[in-house]
Amino acid sequence: MKLYVKAYSSYIGDIKEFDVKKELKQKYKLDTRRQDTFIHLAVYGAQKLRENTDINLDDELYVTSGLGNIDVLQKTNNYVGKEGNFIKPFDFINMLGNTTSYYVASSLGLKGKNTFQISDNFTYINTLISVFASLNISKKDAVLGSIDLATQPDEIIKRVLGVDKETKVTSSVNYQKLSLNEDGALAYMEFDSKSYSLDEINEILKTTSLDVISSMRCRKLDTNKYDEYFETIPAYALSKAIESNSDLLYIDCYDSKYKLLKLINI
Amino acid sequence: MHSINILDYSIKSSQGDIKETLDAIKNAKVKVSSKEVPTLDSKITIPYFLFQDEVKADQNSVLSAIRDVVTPILDKLSKEEKEKTAIIIGTALVDMNIVDSIEDSAYEEQRKPYYSNKRSIDTYAKDLSKEFGLNDFTMTINTACTSSINAVLEARNLINSGVFDNAIVVGVEIFSQMMSSGFSSMKLLSSDFQRPFDISRDGLVLGEAVAAVLVGRGESLWSVKGGYSNCNSLNITSVSPDGGEYADVMKRAMEFSNVDVKNITALKAHATSTPTNDLSEINAINKVFDTNTKFTAIKPYIGHTLGACGVLEMAIFMSCIDDGFIPATISHSESIIKEYVPIQEHTKCESGVFMLNYFGFGGNNTSVIIQKELA
User: Fold this and answer.
1) Which domain holds residue B210?
2) How far is A244 from chain B (nearest CA, A)?
3) pTM for the full predicted model
4) Do B231 and A132 touch (CB under 8 A)?
5) How many CA atoms, within 13 angstroms, populate the side-chain half-sphere of residue B145?
6) B interface mutation test: which of A61, A71, A92, A96 has the most B CBs within 10 A?
7) Does A97 touch chain B (CB under 8 A)?
8) DSSP state of B31
9) CA A90, A91, A93, A99 torsion: positive or negative?
């Protein structure tokens, strides 16, 4: 399967050090009321993407995340589940995954397909497969947003992500505009639904000429890894590879199964 | 053409399994329970379509309930067929995996020893994939009340693109204090029962369900001919009163399925029985269909099962047609538009082309066309 990357945007970092909400209001003149931090981050990434490309009314929108909007769930669990209070209407609405994709679509003026989806094992690659299959039928382009929010205490996220207590987790939002059409593309991605064993991966590593980065979960691979972790990190790795014009082989791992994602700059 | 076949289905609703639910519909003997939910001032008791045997709001209980529904379908597949079968779940369920991790780590008095094990709302799909030897592609979609019908359309894309041969699509919704409280806070709940498209309608009644359909390339009398899903609304919770957004998605579903409106045998409406949604939908029906069109609502029999309603209502509707009838809309006395009245009696029907409507918060609107050919 092959998808062309027409444009991308990327943000990674501690959101406490950067006021996303203020940026949305001041730079992009957007109404941020009734939204929470996760939604603000998602909309911010989308606005950054729009600075780099044209967005069409019927572009398909996919929003994916390792965990979803943990912020509102944490708050609501305490307020309603623990203290027995009445839920506030907009906290209730914000608990729904597609509320985030609604606000992203609204900020981009999208009116077409809009979905919020999570995969437990290969979040980003499975979403790419889903995007490819859909574009193959619809012949449209897609906007893919990958959002992860690190909340406090970060032990919650680490428990759910399945990473060590010492692992540094961070917030990130990465968007790509994807197409089956090569015109004007910056790069293309190749991937498939096949899973590889460790032995197969080691054979591939012997012959590849691409830069290689693997997920922190690939503990048995002696390849480059990022110091910070978030579930949709492949989307970030791809953005960085395009930015530096370096071709990349990204390896993800789950339950001793490996998946590959290749990025080739054009 | 991008149709796929519907090879099998299985459900667990408040009325029981598919046979028990069909019996409840045929005899109009519907069991409704009740639940207490907090309001701004106190607590209220609301009608609720609960499972007859309780499914607790914990990960293991939810997984077990899903397993019970998918097992009869998946046990019929060979090992090779399972390896080419993806699993996609559609749900608006509160992610119990995250709630449990919050419980483990956020409150000092309940702090549990640190452990790490990737868990998310998709963990149910992943666990079942491993248990049944399915393909390791798993996906959980949350687009509110369109979640599981959108999962059906995703399955169609994946199969038609040659990625997989089959997909089992599951809709899940169990009682949640937070969700119930949320609907109550928005004043969308009926105090007694649902009256679809009726001038006296006052809200919805929530319901629990797990439902599954197997779709793929195998032979079947039933097929998904196509559909359309978009995000187009007036605001995050509603569309225009004239139903223009709903009419648009219904027309596009027919266009992308190569079906003309005159070939639609009947419509299963979304029909939540809320004042605003039913007004928009009946106006959309008015824009798309003539007054002779047969249309009906399933929710008065099983409640509004939110993210599960896509697959659940599809399976129940197919079961009724397989039994030879389109189910009547119960609890209806006077229509919002007098020329557009949902069918009042079970109506004989053994085959045809059917439109299924689903609309949700977040602007998600989906309309799907299914067909049953004569044997």
Assistant:
1) 4-372
2) 31
3) 0.96
4) no
5) 30
6) A96
7) yes
8) -
9) positive
Closest by Cβ to B141, choosing from A73, A117, A160: A117
> How far apart are the C-alpha atoms of B356 and B309, rounded to whole Å?
11
Q: Which residues in chain A touch residue B122, judged by CB atoms under 8 angstroms apart?
A: 118-121
Half-sphere exposure of B57 (CA within 13 A, CB side): 17
Give the other-Cβ count within 10 Å of A27's Cβ. Answer: 12
A66, A147 Cβ separation under 8 angstroms: no
Which position has the token pair 């439109």? Answer: B355
Would an 8 Å CB–CB cutoff place A80 in contact with chain B?
yes
Q: Which of residues 145-204 of A touch B (CB under 8 A)?
A: 153, 155-156, 158-165, 193, 195
Q: CB-CB: which of A99, A155, A160 is closest to B119?
A: A160
**Overall number of domains in chain B:** 1
3-state class (DSSP) for residue A148: strand
- Lookup result for tokens 């062309």: A4
Place of tokens 């029907």: B349
CATH topology (fold) of A2-185: Peroxisomal Thiolase; Chain A, domain 1 (3.40.47)
| Measured distance CA(B38)–CA(A141) in Å, rounded | 44
DSSP 8-state assignment for residue B328: P
A80, A87, A112 ranked by CB distance to B230: nearest: A112
Q: What is the CATH number of the domain that holds B251?
A: 3.40.47.10
Per-residue pLDDT of chain B (375 residues; tens, 9 = 90+): 578 999 999 999 999 999 999 999 999 899 999 999 877 778 889 999 999 999 998 889 999 999 999 999 999 999 999 999 999 999 998 887 778 878 887 776 667 776 667 788 999 999 999 999 999 999 999 999 999 999 999 999 999 999 999 999 999 999 988 888 899 989 999 999 999 999 999 999 999 999 999 999 999 999 999 999 999 999 999 999 999 999 999 999 999 999 999 999 999 999 999 999 999 999 999 999 999 999 999 999 999 999 999 999 999 999 999 999 999 999 999 999 999 999 999 999 999 999 999 999 999 999 999 999 988
Looking at the complex, does the CB of residue A257 fall below 8 Å from at least one CB of chain B? Answer: yes
Of A54, A126, A39, residue with least CA distance to B154 = A126
Which of A232, A57, A61, A208 lies closest to A149 in space, CA to CA? A232
A4-15 pLDDT, tens digit each = 999 999 999 865
B341: closest CA of chain A, how far (Å)? 31
CA dist A162 → B10, B61, B116, B290, B370 (Å): 33, 22, 4, 55, 41
- Please compute Rg for chain B using Cα positions: 20
Q: b/e map of A228-253 (b: 16 or more CB within 10 Å)?
A: bbbbbbbbbbbbbbbeeeeebbbbbb
φ, ψ of residue B74 in degrees (nearest 5): -70, -30
Structure tokens at A85: 């209070």
Residue-range domain boundaries for chain A = 2-185, 188-265
In the three-class reduction of DSSP (H, G, I as helix; E, B as strand; rest coil), residue A96 is classed as coil
CA distance B103 to B59: 13
CA atoms within 13 A on the CB side of B199: 7
